[in-house]
Write a structure and sequence with these properties.
single chain, 659 residues, alpha+beta, Killer Toxin P4, Chain A, Phosphorylase Kinase, domain 1, 27 strands
């Protein structure tokens, strides 16, 4: 899997660079297998291909259609650029349905992107599902004179366009406009961003923020770039490439970091489909130069990287783990994640005390170095309640989760009595080490805390809605939120996570696991859990971040209280700011009050009264949404669970149930 994924990435990069000369971008995937010429799947696909260009619904710019049953079901989606006419849209899609089967002759999953449209099909569900691959990116080789300032202007424009595109409705999530630089290196920069309208506002915003981050990381100061993912698209240039008369938004000029101010748009005359401007001719010449100069170099570099990576990978992985097929699915994928015990011992200096960076009920965590990369090694204790089968299931679960607000899983080791998980090393330890420490808490200003709250929310939206598998974390707490060098949050520790099947919304267990103070009442008392259980934990976490106090054993006025009840009483009495960490006094009151409101809303006793995490993210990102009226929160201190809470210590247990 490692090699196939790596080679697929190489092919994608090369294809995209080669596609610079007005060629479509093609992504063919073998992950879901192939179909044969006389198969039912091919017949269903042909039915969709023949009917799609004439489907009247395409005039709205987006179309999804499915045909067939079970493994032979074909799901397809088509999207046209938000500024093109229905005629251009239909023409582009006609080219797409003719070209894609030729370029991907037997793959069950394939996608094609032209400048004016996108078309993809798969035997997996497409609508409402956010996919990360394939991703294509390309940039102009020319730099702006003032690269730093140019990059700031571009990022400011992209941030605004992303917000406006995400605010679109279920028919169109699109935004375009231009900005001007305010330095001697004068440019008018034109930008466009679009999402498939079937995804939520939060999903669209997250997708566009990710591609904007790619621009900031890989194309800083470049005068043009395009980045394409299955669910979102970004492009900016120093010439107008869209039909300004079809763009409904008001163009703005940015001067980051000050607020955006309205200006009249700078718009060229509309172009007919066959017109080529001088700017576009120059772009074509520059892109041809990219292909001639960059492509051979890229091929050489990628071949070298592949050889080195293969050598390193084979040295680090010398043992294999046999798993019965009845225990977990996709067990073949485990082989690519295995580390040899000798490799782990070398990386951690044989688990030396000097390298130990954490200790909990699950065992110890060590810092290590593997092939020049810093890693965190979680060594489960011998008396951990997690068995071998549960351990393997956890490995397979976390291996499927990839998000910037989740700690990245690198691999595992299962050797005799040793059960070891390997993760990326996150520099700033866990949130509880900051938020509950009187000295370190002073380093967390409101901007940082708000960023942490938003990042945790995005991570939970991914787990609940956007990942390949729907996951309920069940142990969300400050100790399980790690902070990287830029204080970006990463959710960690999936030892108690619960995997939901497609369509499943609730579950029950007689074995309640987690950490007191963060558990929703229906879970602590009755063992009932859902995504709303994580929402409750998130609400507690938000209140802790705002107040700098722990929810459990919260002391106030010489009596034991809980933070939720204390915050509620002050909210009801109109003295909400009394609960705010004194360090934050003088901060943006409206934003702080909004977070307290969201925290209390998430901690409602009735799970139906709690919002979903994508709604929470929408609340955090909007200043215009009216929040629902609060009901009294749960009587946290007086609730009495009917079952024992499995826990090794106050940090929580390390148990996973996959029934």
């Amino acid at each position: 899997m490692f090699h196939s994924t790596f080679l697929f990435s190489i092919i994608v990069i090369i294809i995209f660079i080669s596609s610079a000369i007005a060629q479509p971008n093609i992504g063919c995937s073998n992950d879901n297998g192939n179909y044969t010429d006389n198969s039912t799947y091919r017949a269903n696909l042909q039915r969709i291909l023949s009917s799609l260009p004439t489907d009247k619904r395409i005039v709205e710019g987006f179309l999804n259609v499915s045909y067939g049953e079970k493994s032979d079901r074909v799901n397809a989606a088509a999207l046209c650029r938000g500024d093109v006419t229905p005629e251009l849209c239909r023409s582009c899609l006609n080219d797409s349905v003719l070209e894609l089967p030729k370029r991907c002759p037997n793959q069950k999953e394939a996608a094609i992107w032209y400048l004016n449209c996108m078309f993809r099909y798969s035997d997996r569900r497409i609508v409402g599902v956010v996919r990360d691959i394939p991703t294509f990116w390309m940039w102009n080789i020319e730099d702006a004179m003032d690269q730093k300032r140019f990059g700031q202007v571009v990022q400011g424009m992209l941030a605004q366009l992303a917000g406006e595109a995400a605010m679109g409705d279920s028919k169109l999530k699109f935004s375009a406009g231009n900005v001007t630089t305010d330095s001697d290196d004068y440019w008018i920069v034109y930008g466009m961003m679009q999402c498939t309208p079937d995804i939520s506002q939060a999903q669209c915003l997250d997708c566009l923020q990710i591609v904007a981050g790619v621009v900031q990381t890989w194309c800083p100061g470049k005068i043009g770039a395009r980045i394409i993912r299955p669910n979102c698209y970004l492009r900016y240039e120093i010439f107008s490439f869209f039909d300004s008369t079809a763009v409904s938004r008001v163009s703005r000029s940015t001067s980051p970091p000050t607020p955006l101010s309205p200006l009249l748009p700078v718009s060229p005359p509309p172009l007919s489909p066959n017109t080529t401007t001088k700017a576009e001719e120059n772009e074509s010449k520059r892109l041809k130069t990219v292909v001639v100069i960059v492509l051979p170099a890229v091929v050489v570099v990628l071949i070298v990287v592949l050889m080195v990576s293969t050598f390193i990978f084979l040295r680090a992985r010398k043992q294999r783990v046999g798993v019965a097929s009845s225990e977990v699915d996709d067990t073949a994928d485990l082989e690519t994640l295995v580390f040899d015990i000798s490799t782990i011992r070398t990386a951690t200096d044989d688990f030396s005390d000097e390298n130990q960076i954490g200790q909990g009920g699950f065992g110890a965590v060590y810092k290590g170095s593997l092939v020049g990369q810093e890693i965190a090694v979680k060594r489960l204790s011998q008396n951990s309640m997690q068995g071998e089968s549960e351990f393997k299931n956890e490995v397979l679960l976390v291996a499927k989760l990839q998000h910037r607000n989740l700690v990245r899983f690198l691999g595992f080791c299962l050797h005799e009595d040793e059960r070891i998980l390997v993760f990326e090393f996150v520099q700033n330890s866990s949130l509880d080490k900051f938020i509950f420490d009187p000295l370190k808490r002073q380093d967390l200003d409101w901007e940082t805390r708000y960023k942490i709250i938003g990042g945790i929310a995005r991570g939970l939206v991914y787990l609940h809605e956007d990942s390949q598998v729907k996951v309920i974390h069940r142990d969300l707490k400050a100790a399980n939120i790690l902070l990287d060098a830029e204080m970006n949050p990463k959710i960690s520790d999936f030892g108690m996570a619960k995997l939901f099947q497609e369509g499943q919304t609730r579950g029950n267990t007689s074995r309640v696991v987690g950490t007191q103070g963060y558990m929703a009442p229906e879970y602590a008392i009755y063992g009932a859990f859902s995504n709303k259980s994580d929402v409750f934990s998130f609400g507690v976490l938000v209140l802790e971040i705002v107040t700098g106090q722990k929810n459990s054993s919260f002391y106030q006025e010489e009596k034991i209280d809980d933070l939720i009840s204390y915050a509620w009483r002050n909210w009801r009495a109109g003295t909400t700011l009394n609960v705010v960490d004194p360090i934050l006094r003088g901060g943006p009151t409206n934003e702080i009050m909004k977070c307290i409101n969201i925290g209390l809303l998430c901690a409602q006793e009735n799970s139906a009264d709690r919002p979903t995490m994508d709604t929470v993210l929408l609340m955090l990102n909007s200043d215009t949404i009216t929040l629902p009226i609060l009901s009294p929160p749960t009587d946290f201190m007086n609730r009495k669970p009917i079952s024992d809470i499995s826990s090794l210590d106050r940090s929580g247990s390390h148990v996973i149930e996959m029934e």
